[in-house]
Specification:
binds ligand C2E, 42% helix, Alpha-Beta Plaits, 616 residues, 8-stranded mixed beta barrel, 20 helices, binds magnesium ion
């Protein structure tokens, strides 16, 4: 680094006299303190502690370049404090600014010769000589480190070298920290909107939940309405513009203390500041809703945007970030579905999301430990009452949340990517049970277990191979396990689920359609899939005693089924009247509380034993 010594005789000429600015040794304490400083403030505080100590008779200050690169902001250094002086200097046109522009140290031996500069007024305070050293780190000049003294020509080579060495260390340290800060900023920023990104806003939420000093936070889960339509019909540029515009509008109605982030897609999250309870969070949600009212235009089109907002407030710190987010998400879903405006998560939503959280966390362990199991509901011959088989129904009696429905178990496993593991585990469990039952009751050998599969389970391309391998491993035959397709009405031709059904059919696996008559089914199903059985849903069965059209539908379908060799089963039979009508309409098989409830396997064993005729 070079140094300019201002020649007092040529105040505007600045004839530099090159002096030695080589590095001097600094106290170890200073170097330790500087290298462990963790922020710009820390770095300046270290300078404030050490500069007055190392150049004792001078007053020292620092001038920092402002964000717009046009000015210098002045701070006094002293007693380990950095005090704003409330003064700003133009970089162009000031002597201190010149040190920044030229990146050279400037020594002013007598400011009385510089009365036209910003140093002039210092004379009244008794200052005579001034030293300005640029603070440089890499390619950046952060400002200047300055010292002033009451003697003329006070700053000679030793003090110049000392302040230069200090400034060099300050510059290096500032550079390291601005780099870290800019990397951290980039890693925490959503590129499109400039808001906090998903990770940053979720980290912030987690931190707020862990802050034991403050009340637990309230959050707003915002999902834009109509975003997909804009994206699909006007292109991604329009979609992006809408996201940016909405982000600006949301920022406009939030206080700076409330953190706003983009979770991804068209989802945003607000983590409210301390002291905002659920009630106030709802008021914020109303402001956000209002901010959406104004139409959004892009090119020649214009739409009225909207936002569905779910609000959740943590009642205690035992609330996890994931749980709070799920509650707000569930409330948002209600807001979207019912178009009610912002919805606040209530006790019902809380309980439900707590249960979902438990299902997600504990599913794997519950399979392993046997907490999830199967109950079996016998299928009977409607006239003889003989047990023809049983349907395996998934059960999870949770110690905290009670009975968790099979829909919820399957649904969560599908959503969390564990459906294949659950499916393989389920089939293995059912086959093992069935094999042991067949061994125990040789006459049961001809009975079949019904095993439910959702379309998503059937979409697993390896399902058929896994199915065949599993039943073989347990010594069962292909017709011992009937695949019962739930929601079969949603399976389209050409899908992976349909391919699996065709594969299973060609391997002689028996396929039944569940929930028949619930509205999704058409007669085409008889020919589209390789099916062997249909199960009339309880909603249709319960109509039979009072509705002649329900009776006509069941009678017609049962007739067609019989014609083409398909077994028809009545499900959910609760009354004798329903059972009688089923028989009248041509159904041979039935299932329902009247005939037998779903039961644990040991109860089924006992029932079979009880109903098996004793040999003389
Ligand atoms: P589903 O296959 O139609 O099973 C029949 C459901 O009706 C069972 O409910 C059963 O307990 C109930 N039920 C039986 N008889 C009666 C009755 O007389 N009256 C009434 N009101 N209900 C009766 P559950 O066990 O809660 O199962 C509900 C659904 O969950 C099943 O409907 C099936 O779609 C699905 N599910 C159960 N286990 C599995 C499984 O292992 N995998 C898949 N994918 N789905 C399963
Ligand atoms: Mg079923
Ligand atoms: Mg059913």
């Amino acid at each position: 680094m070079t140094t300019e010594r201002v020649d007092p005789r040529t105040p505007t000429g600045f004839v530099p006299q090159h002096v030695d600015t080589s590095i001097v040794e600094l106290p170890v304490g200073f170097i330790d303190a500087m290298s462990s400083a963790e922020s710009t403030d820390d770095i300046l505080r270290v300078a404030a502690t050490w500069v007055p100590a190392l150049i004792p008779l001078a007053t020292s200050s620092v001038a920092l370049v402002t964000a717009d690169d046009t000015e210098l902001e002045l701070f006094a250094l002293g007693g380990s404090a950095v005090l704003p002086l409330g003064l700003r200097l133009q970089i162009d046109g000031s002597l201190t600014g010149r040190a920044v522009r030229t990146r050279q140290t400037i020594v002013t031996p007598n400011i009385l010769d510089e009365t036209g500069t910003e140093l002039g007024p210092l004379a009244a305070d008794g200052v005579r000589s001034v030293l300005n050293v640029p603070i440089i780190g890499g390619s950046i000049c952060f400002g200047t480190l300055n010292a002033a003294h009451s003697e003329e020509d006070f700053f000679t080579d030793p003090s110049v070298r000392l302040l230069s060495t200090i400034a060099r260390l300050v510059g290096l340290q500032l550079r390291v920290h601005t780099q870290i800060a800019s990397q951290t900023h980039a890693a925490r920023t959503d590129v499109l909107t400039g808001l906090l990104n998903r990770r940053a806003i979720l980290d912030h939420l987690a931190e707020r939940l862990q802050d034991h000093e403050a009340a637990p936070p309230a959050i707003l889960f915002i999902d834009l309405d109509g975003f997909k339509a804009v994206n699909d019909s006007h292109g991604h540029a329009a979609g992006d513009a809408m996201l940016v515009e909405m982000a600006r509008r949301f920022e406009g109605v939030l206080r700076t203390e409330d953190a706003l982030g983009r979770l991804g897609g068209d989802e945003f999250l607000v983590v409210c500041d301390e002291g905002v309870d659920g009630h106030r969070a709802m008021q914020i949600a109303d402001r956000i809703t209002e901010a959406c009212v104004e139409p959004f235009g892009f090119g020649s089109f214009s739409i009225s945007p909207g936002a569905s907002i779910g609000v959740a407030a943590a009642r205690s710190r035992s609330h996890t970030a994931a749980q709070l987010l799920n509650e707000a998400d569930a409330a948002m879903y209600l807001a979207k579905r019912n178009r009610t405006g912002p919805v606040r998560a209530d006790a019902h939503i809380e309980a439900r999301t707590a249960r979902i959280g438990a299902v997600d966390r504990e599913l794997d362990a519950a399979m392993e430990s046997g907490l999830i199991s199967f109950h079996y509901q016998p299928v009977r011959h409607l006239t003889t009452g003989e047990i023809l088989g049983a349907e395996a129904l998934l059960r999870w009696d949770h110690p905290v949340h009670g009975m968790i429905s099979p829909f919820e178990i399957i649904g969560r496993a599908e959503m969390t990517g564990r459906i294949e593991a659950l499916t393989a585990w389920s089939l293995d469990t059912v086959c093992r049970t069935w094999a042991s039952l067949s061994k125990e009751f040789p006459h049961f050998w001809e009975k079949a277990a019904s095993f439910n599969l959702s379309p998503q389970q059937l979409s697993w391309r390896g399902y058929c191979d896994m199915h065949l391998e599993t039943i073989e491993r347990h010594g069962l035959r292909r017709h011992d396990v009937i695949v019962e397709v739930v929601e079969s009405g949603t399976i389209d031709v050409g899908t992976a689920a349909e391919a699996t059904l065709q594969q299973l059919g060609s391997e002689d696996v028996i396929i039944g359609l569940d929930d028949f008559g619930t509205g999704h089914h058409a007669l085409g199903y008889f020919t589209r899939f390789p099916i062997h059985a249909i199960k009339f849903d309880r909603s249709l069965i319960m109509e039979l005693p009072k509705s002649s059209s329900a009776r006509s539908i069941v009678k017609g379908l049962a007739h067609i089924a019989a014609e083409i060799g398909i077994t028809a089963v009545g499900e959910g039979i609760e009354t004798q009247a329903e059972a009688d009508i089923c028989v009248e309409l041509g159904l041979e098989q039935g299932q329902g509380f009247l005939l037998a409830r779903p039961m644990p396997i040991d109860d089924l064993r006992a029932l079979i034993r009880h109903e098996t005729p004793q040999r003389p």
